[in-house]
Amino acid sequence: MAETKTKKRVLNAVMVALCAVVVFAGAMAVTSLRDSDSTELADPAGSTLSASQTDGEEPSDSQEEFATEQMQQELDLAAGEGVGSASGSESAGGQAATEGPSQGAAAVEGDIPAQTCTIEVRCDTVLDNMGDLAPGKSSCVPANGVILAASTVRFAQGDTVLDVLKAASSATGLQLEYSYTPGYGSYYVEGINNLYEFDCGNESGWMYKVNGWFPNYGCSEYQVYDGDVIVWCYTCKGYGADLGASVEQ
Fold first, then answer.
1. Cα 82 to Cα 58: distance, rounded to the nearest angstrom
2. Rounded Cα gap, residues 206 and 232, in angstroms
3. pLDDT tens readout for residues 91-145
4. What digits encode the pLDDT tens for the residues 222-240?
5. 223: burial class by Cβ within 10 Å (0-12, 13-18, 19+)?
6. What local confidence, expressed as pLDDT, does residue 229 receive?
7. pLDDT band for position 184 (50/70/90)?
8. 127: phi then psi, degrees, rounded to nearest 5
9. Within 10 Å of residue 30's Cβ, how many Cβ atoms?
């Protein structure tokens, strides 16, 4: 009986010891796991970052230098557009600012100062003779009879009335046709704005006057002077009689 009690006591002691070992081992495992998790989260060299860390990441020195250089390039480009850089439209803009006289002005050479005159083109008389106007020509006659309003033209010494008319036509895109007449040794204006001689009767055509006077010689022979007022007029009757002029003047 006493031997049986002794065996039970030994068995209970062994069981208690085993339980203690199991509890101790479990405690060590939990401690090891906690240490491992703490080490992984605290590791600054880890390759995995959370979203919040990515958003708040500080740029490296190389990234800051790249951003600064890119901004400087954009500023340089913007400045180049203002001064006319060597490429693209900037260069064209710089050249446009240094172009010479306006289109249509007669050339002025040497030290000869530029001179100016005024020129006007009218066909008022046609409005009173529309019944005689050739078919399809009504579009060439403005409602007020003014084809070219009084305009100022620069010219050089020695330029003629024809030179001034050519300059004005070139500047405004006005249609002009003229031909050389060997018998008179001068040029003759046949049509302006597609309105030609004989388009409004057998006596119709273009004439010119300077300062109110109708010269009796060709427009390529009449030299213009500073301040002259030139008017090209279309006559329909009497070779200028309806304009207050005649070929005998």
1. 36
2. 7
3. 222 222 223 333 334 433 445 567 999 999 999 999 999 999 999 999 999 999 9
4. 999 999 999 999 999 999 9
5. middle
6. 98
7. confident
8. -60, -25
9. 10
The conformation of residue 179, written as its DSSP 8-state character, comes to E
Phi, psi at residue 152, to the nearest 5°? -90, 135
CB-side neighbour CA atoms (13 Å) of 194? 10
**pTM greater than 0.70:** no
b/e map 143-155, b = 16+ CB within 10 Å = eebebbeebebbb
User: What strand order describes the sheet that includes 195-196?
Assistant: 176-181, 186-192, 195-196
Q: Sign of dihedral through CA atoms 127, 133, 137, 138?
A: positive
Question: What is the token pair recorded at 91?
Answer: 């260069």
Per the structure block, which two tokens stand in for 176? Answer: 């002009």
Distance CA 206, CA 214 (A): 11
